[in-house]
Amino acid sequence: MISTNTSQDPYPVYPIGMATVSAALAAGGHDVRQFDLLAEDASDERLKGVISRFDPHYVGISLRNIDSVDSCDPEDRWYLSADLRLMKVVREATRVPVIIGGSAFSIMPEEILNYLGGDYGVVGEGEHVICGLIDALVEGKAIPRITMSRHRDAPLNAAATNPMWEPGLVKFYTEQSGMVNMVTKRGCPHHCAYCTYPVLEGHTVRYGAPDDVADHLQHLKDSYGIDTLYFTDSVFNDGKGHYLEIAEALVRRELNVKWTAFFRPAGIDKGGWDLLKRSGLYAVELGSDAASDAALLGLNKGFTFDDIYAFNDAAVEARVPCAHYVMFGGPGETRESIDEGLHNLNLLKNCMVMAFSGIRILPGTTLHVRAIEEGIIAKGTPLLKPSYYFSPGIDRERMNDTIKNAFEGRMDRIFPPSEGARLMKKMNSLGYRGLLWDRLVNFGRN
Ligand code: B12
Ligand code: SF4
Questions:
Q1: Roughly what angle, to the nearest 10 degrees, separates helices 210-224 and 167-177?
Q2: Which ligand ends up closest to the CA of 198?
């Protein structure tokens, strides 16, 4: 199994996609070798040597990112060109079938399979189908080039929260980013205009058993000394309150871990914040997504800026640093809403804000449909290379300058996102590891 993700933006993230599929393969009786292009010496010669020594019957490739989704990216990163090169190296090393999967792959499976020239692809959660796929190949059965894994009604099984950790990789990622990552649920019931998460995971939320999550954390702690986690759920604070059950399990087990996750600005009461903090919550990443009510409506977020404001206040009250991710230039954005948005962001105290310019158009989203209707892209425009949505109501350059000026001189306001990466590198060179932005939030200041 090869993880191709080399992005360190905003920090390196443990390849749990590869690890989860590897765990399923191992449970199915297969021998698995995991190879991580970021963590290991990944020169062509070394990779070829590893492949020939292991002599696999199948190679699995895990693709996490297509690009950086940042229209201002000075390096214009597009990871599929490196993936194509990798494919060539793999083909030179072995003639066995290559199976491709991962979140990037699942967004545009046909296009990516064709572009990379893989033999088979899996859309969605690989752990449910990988052994069956291999059995079918062994038996010589005719199977489709692309297998759909849509297990959207089943509860999350323990395998999903139990990846095959590789000690060398755990060491690398804890040294580099101070944490590893883990899933507690999958799916998102919301319908935000630009978002592929429901396409990837479905709208039905499937929950992991809180005791399974706690067991697994205990294992990570005991075996690897892990004390900091990122829960990768699309939205951690689900409407049913499963996240509070997770927090209760962590408190009950006295795990004493620190954790963070992606939240939605929706009601957590005082008791909720207390419980989350006691369970180890030390920072919140918030999918605020837009800064004015008009832009929030254009994205179909289902909340208003008042909700963001109230959530931020509650986080400050609980002394939990909060990072807001916002995108300017989306549907419904105008010159007036940009000014209003920047004014609104200014009112948010003791928090970080990271702003993006325009929105990467991805298939399966209503933003894609709208971009075609508004003539921003033509029907049939290939989306493998990034196209961005910019509202017809704004001038892109002028908008970028306005945001830059508004954020000028502030360490807690980041635009464009590559500035954040620069800041992270600086802090890394000073020996800091982890989220890092949480250290820039100062509760002593207003
Ligand atoms: C959590 C998350 C983050 C967190 C990660 C924190 C952390 N410490 O892990 C943060 C906020 C830091 C982040 C940052 C970024 N992210 Co992000 N992130 C996610 C999210 C929500 C979950 C990813 C995850 O870990 N899932 C859990 C694992 C188990 O699932 P998985 O990797 O998909 O693997 C499963 C399947 O894909 C499949 N599979 C995987 N590999 C293989 C291989 C084979 C052979 C097979 C058969 C199957 C298979 O089976 C696996 C098990 O079920 C996804 C969206 C989503 N809902 O998937 C976006 C997502 C992966 N992110 C994305 C992007 C773009 C980014 C950034 C580049 C954005 C930016 N500029 O900041 C950075 C890059 C970070 C990096 N260093 O790589 C995109 C990638 C696609 C794209 N558009 O290019 C996604 C899909 C969201 C989107 N916009 O559509 N991200
Ligand atoms: S942006 Fe967040 S809340 Fe909206 S659909 Fe995507 S994951 Fe769900």
A1: 90
A2: 2
* Amino acid letter, 412: D
Quick check: CB of 70 below 6 Å from ligand 1?
yes
Sole residue written with tokens 């916002």: 326
Q: Please report the atom of ligand 1 found closest to the CA of residue 188.
A: 57
Of 103, 107, 190, which is best to mutate to test ligand 2, by the most ligand atoms within 8 angstroms of its C-beta?
Answer: 190
Q: In percent, how much of the chain has pLDDT > 70?
A: 97
Q: Among 146, 149, 87, which Cα is nearest to 121's?
A: 146
Rounded mean pLDDT of 417-439?
82
Q: How does strand 185-186 pair with strand 206-207?
A: antiparallel
- Residue among 390, 409, 307, 290 at smallest CA distance from 342: 290
Other beta carbons less than 10 A from residue 403's beta carbon: 25
Residue 329 · residue 399 · CB < 8 Å: yes
Determine the atom of ligand 2 nearest the C-alpha atom of 289.
1
Q: Convert the pLDDT of each residue in 258-293 to its tens digit.
A: 999 999 999 899 999 999 999 999 999 999 999 999
Residues 38-60 as b or e (16 or more Cβ within 10 Å = b): bbbebeeeebeebbeeeebebbb
Euclidean distance between CA atoms 321 and 258, whole angstroms? 13
Ligand 1 pocket check for 438: Cβ under 6 Å: no
CB 174 within 8 A of CB 165: no
| CA 276/CA 118 separation, integer angstroms | 44
Q: What angle do CA 120, 125, 127 make, to 5 degrees?
A: 85
Which domains are seen in the chain, by residue range?
2-149 (3.40.50.280), 179-440 (3.80.30.20)
Residues 4, 82: contact at Cβ < 8 Å?
yes
Count of CB atoms within 10 A of residue 30's CB? 15
